[in-house]
Amino acid sequence: VQLQASGGGLVQAGDSLRLSCAGSGSTFSSSTIAWFRQTPGKEREFAAAIRWSGGNIGYSDDVKGRFTISRDYPKNMVYLQMNSLKPEDTAVYYCAVGRPPWGNRKDIGSYYYWGQGTLVTVSS
Questions:
Q1: How far apart are alpha carbons 15 and 64 in whole angstroms?
Q2: First and final CA of the chain: distance in angstroms?
Q3: What is the pLDDT of residues 94-109, one digit of tens each?
Q4: pLDDT digits over 53-62, tens only?
Q5: CA-closest candidate to residue 123, choices 89, 93, 82, 87
Q6: Which H or E element spans position 94?
């Protein structure tokens, strides 16, 4: 199983970025795909999640209204569209796959496959 996260970069506050998470084979089948983020010295925190089948979607309060998670079945991809970026969004962003009950989607321990991370830097 491979997860490939990409799309990070250096942007200014107010700009947009789209992160991509590519899955191999049937990685996403019957799973929840989430984006977490981490800054130095802090714990990895939940940002957004989507159920591959059924399409349930959830966001953290910090990103709700600014970020949009979506999926592309034919391409086996999950995206995180990030708009109105703020300096506090600066972090390494990771995509992850697991099968948690939807109520546990924010639980980092519920995810067993992780991508390598992509760095997002937002300057003020």
A1: 16
A2: 37
A3: 999 999 999 999 999 9
A4: 988 999 999 9
A5: 87
A6: strand 91-98
